[in-house]
Design a protein that fits this description.
By secondary structure, the protein is an alpha/beta fold. Helix content is 30%, strand content 41%.
Length: 231
């Protein structure tokens, strides 16, 4: 009888938690300097870079890879992997010397070596992504123990996460800032333990990647060689 009651309570809790944990809230703000899409020919590439501030923190490399993959999906945008770009331009984009402002980027492009390498790799747009995913609140606990007759876990834990990021698009040919996309995703995750721990994880970072990546993809349009949509 006791086992049946525990099973019923566990089942009910699982249903409630699965419904709660699957919901996240995402807000996206977009700003563009120009009404027309950004031109991108077959030979030109885009680079997505994460901000790194001299060891204080860095935008997660796996999140940058995720955005790059979203941009490249469908073949509309050619994306150079971040690490390949860093290796090609070492040490100019290391944390202590990376151009965090467009003016600084313009000064770097005055160096013939850097400018020639940008041109040889056909890098047209640089997208800086700044932000991180943080745990904002934790509560509860899960305890596990072993005994002669077996073992198990019991308890309940929850935590909230917020993923906040901003992407800034630089046109390295025109040396202009073309637009920004901001995304903020919030969600709650849970672990229910009755003998075995059962997690319900809110995919806040995945949702943030999808939101920001899809919006950025909408910035670009393919342009045939020799043609231009913009004045």
């Amino acid at each position: 009888m006791r086992h049946s009651v525990v099973t019923q309570i566990t089942t009910l809790a699982l249903v409630i938690l699965s419904l709660a944990a699957c919901s996240t809230s995402t807000t996206i703000d977009e700003f563009r300097e120009a009404r027309l899409d950004l031109e991108l020919s077959d030979s030109e590439q885009v680079v997505v870079m994460g901000r790194r501030h001299a060891g204080e923190y860095e935008t997660e490399p796996d999140f940058i890879d995720c955005i790059g993959n979203r941009l490249a999906s469908g073949g509309k945008v050619s994306v150079m992997p971040e690490q390949q770009f860093l290796d090609s331009f070492y040490p100019w984009f290391e944390p202590r010397v990376a151009p965090l402002k467009l003016k600084r980027m313009g000064m770097m492009l005055n160096d013939p070596l850097i400018a020639e390498r940008i041109n040889s790799l056909s890098i047209r747009y640089l997208i800086w992504v700044d932000g991180r995913t943080e745990t904002t609140e934790k509560s509860g606990s899960v305890n596990c123990a072993l005994a002669l007759g077996g073992g198990g876990c019991f308890g309940f834990a929850s935590w909230d996460k917020t993923a906040s990021y901003e992407a800034t698009v630089w046109d390295l040919k025109q040396l202009d800032e073309e637009g920004r996309v901001k995304v903020s995703t919030e969600g709650s995750s849970y672990v229910l333990a009755v003998v075995a721990p059962i997690p319900f994880i809110a995919q806040v970072q995945d949702n943030a990647c999808k939101g920001i990546g899809d919006r950025l993809k909408g910035f670009f349009s393919h342009v045939e060689p020799g043609r231009s949509k913009r004045n």
